[in-house]
Structure formats: C-alpha cells, structure tokens
Amino acid sequence: MKFVDAFWSHQSPYCYFALDRLLALNERADVTVTLRPILPGVIRDGDLFKDRPDIEKRYFLLDVRRTADFLGVAYREADPYPVNFSPESMYRAEGDQGRALRLYYLTAAAIELDRGWRFLDCVSRLIWDGSTRNWHRPDVMGAALRSKGIDLEELERTFDGKEQEYDAQFARNRDAMLAAGHWGAPCFVYNGEPFYGQDRFDQLCWRIDNS
Q: Strands 193-196, 187-190: parallel, antiparallel or unpaired by DSSP?
C-alpha cells in the first residue's frame, strides 16, 4: 500500500480543482490518501499576507478562471468565501472567522466519523462550482449533505466541545506540511516528498507509479 497525505484548504479554489483527481487516486486499491485539513493561510499566517499588491489579486482572479476553463471544471467565486475578509483586501482576514472555523470543525467531525471524503466531495462543490449561494447556511448545507447520506446535525454534535482538539489537529497538520517542505495548499506528500499545487498532481501520480 502507498500512502499520500493531502493537505487541504477550503479557501483555495486550487484545492477544489484537484478534487476529482484526488478522489480517483483515493479509490485506487494500492493507494491510501489521508485528508489533512489546514486553516487558510490568511488565518494561520496572516502576517505573510499583509502587504500583497493589487496585481497579485488581479492575477489570481484571472488564473483561477483560466484554470477552471482549462480543466473543464465548473467554477465561480465562492459566495461567500469561507474566510471573512477585510473590506479593503482579500488577503487580510477579519477577526471574526466563525464561518471558516465552523466549516473546518465540520470537516474534522466528518473525518472522525469516516465520512471525510464524502463531505469534501459535497461541500467543495457547494462552495466553488457556482451552483449555490449562501452555501454556509445550515439549511443549504444540510440539504446538500443529506443527499450524500451525511447528517449535518450529527456532525455538529460530534464537534461540540472538541473545538480545541480540532484546532490542535489543524496546527499539527500545518507543522507536518512545513516539515515536508512546503507552506501552502493544496500540497500532496508522498514518501516525504511534497507536490505543491493542483498542477503537480500528475507528477505525484507519476512518482507513485514509479516507486
């Protein structure tokens, strides 16, 4: 069996762009992929994003649309983004991150209940494929998860009182990603070697197949 760690940020559309290939990799009989969520960079390392120039935002907005078109993946800017941004910058997080944290706690609960991949498959599309506004509302997310056989209220009960435990998990995941040699998501680690970005996924599979 070959083991891959997938370090995942719900804030990154590039993670979403790798979703179908990651799910397919995890279905292989010879590969086990461990989903390891990390908090968005603007939350976990906010100081790194304080002085990003506007040109970076403009390029990002161009590149994600182009990448979605290239991959043939349905995409629209998240409405809302998981992160609550400062009004003047998409690279500065507000103090209140209840929406993002709740999403991550639900993810951790789904993983604990062995429903992490189904949750990821459902919610990543809910956020990024352009078909849903206000994806974060309990009625909207609850209905989508229910269609996949997941009970939102059960997830909420599972993470209730475990927030600090899950926060520690996210921090350990971040530390493990850094130890492997990269700082951003999506990052896939195989045999200690990091592959950063959805555009390195084919190289990841090549390495797996030739080791």
A: antiparallel
**36 to 10, 64, 81, 201: CA distances (angstroms):** 11, 23, 20, 16
- Quick: pLDDT tens for 27-52: 999 999 999 999 998 787 756 667 67
Structural domains for the chain: 2-209 (3.40.30.10)
Give dist(CA 113, CA 206) in Å, integer.
Answer: 31
Can you read off the two tokens belonging to residue 200?
Answer: 């390195």
> Which tops the pLDDT comparison, 58 or 101?
101
What phi and psi, each to the nearest 5 degrees, are found at residue 111?
Answer: -60, -45
Q: At what angle do helices 138-146 and 116-128 cross, to 10 degrees?
A: 130
- 0.90 exceeded by the pTM? yes
d(CA 75, CA 112): 29
DSSP state of 85: B
- Contact by Cβ (8 Å): 76, 129: yes
Say which residue, 85 or 74, is predicted with more confidence: 74
Give the span between the Cα atoms of 75 and 61, in whole angstroms.
Answer: 12
Cα-flanking dihedrals φ and ψ of residue 45, to 5°?
-135, 55
Residues 57 and 92: their CA atoms lie apart, in Å, by 12
